[in-house]
Amino acid sequence: MTSDESVAVVVERINRVPDRFRAYTEPQERVTRFYRIPPELLTGLLDHGLPHARDGDRLLFDRRDLKNVVLRLSVRSPQHTALRSMAEALEHGSRHAVVRRTLNVTAGCPAPGHEGDCDVTLAAPVRAAAREITRMAGGHYQIAVEVPGGPAELLDFGPAHWQLVEAAAALEFHRVPYHVIADVGFTAETGLADCRSATRYLVHVGRRLGLDVRPAAGIHLSRPFANTHCWLELRIGGEWRTADPFFNLVLGRWGIVDGAAWPANRVPKGAFWHLTELLEPVMHHGDTILRPSLLVR
Known about the structure:
With 297 residues, the protein is of the alpha+beta class. It contains 10 helices and 16 strands.
């Protein structure tokens, strides 16, 4: 049973985001059917000030706010299942020296019926990083992916690295508006961040601490549905190493992984397919950016 106190905490965090970033498009009936938020929980959220709008007798909600509710209150939903799948991918990577996956990238034509062949192509970083690419029918590609895995390894952090971990620990995972992803001031002021904004913020903090740190982005090879993801790379012992203190801490704090087994300095092996420094589109149709489905087997 979700406590009234935890509901109040979630709503308070949601309200740290200015209302100008909201779009009230989700009707009340979809809240229960798709987001699986029970009516009694929705009543409690509204009592504590969950932002909403009215269209006649109907209540409308912001999609991002609802996703934050189900994530923070562990409501059984596709959003919460995705986090557990990401944790399973991390555990899988630690059991195999090399992780081989087949990534199916699929998108429909954004302008069906146009003249000529449908020009659906993979972005250059995807093509460069793939071990093998097979063009299927339409906007469907099968990509053979190979990433190094291996047993648990802890990075040798110095005092400045642990200060960076303190900065990561002060952040709360929250789906933030696209407009504030690069705004490190917003992240510092609100303490709210997703993997994209947390990565930018921690790179900013790390460089101020004198660390060699850079952003990394790509695809988290969770099954069956992959997710785009951002993390850090730290130069330690003369080489760049993968690190994800923010996400390790989030998964441990939420009980999705064993926090003792996944401390902030554990290397996330076998789950991240590195493509670029910052998140970029995976697929295009001519000059149009597509948002494909990412299915992993």
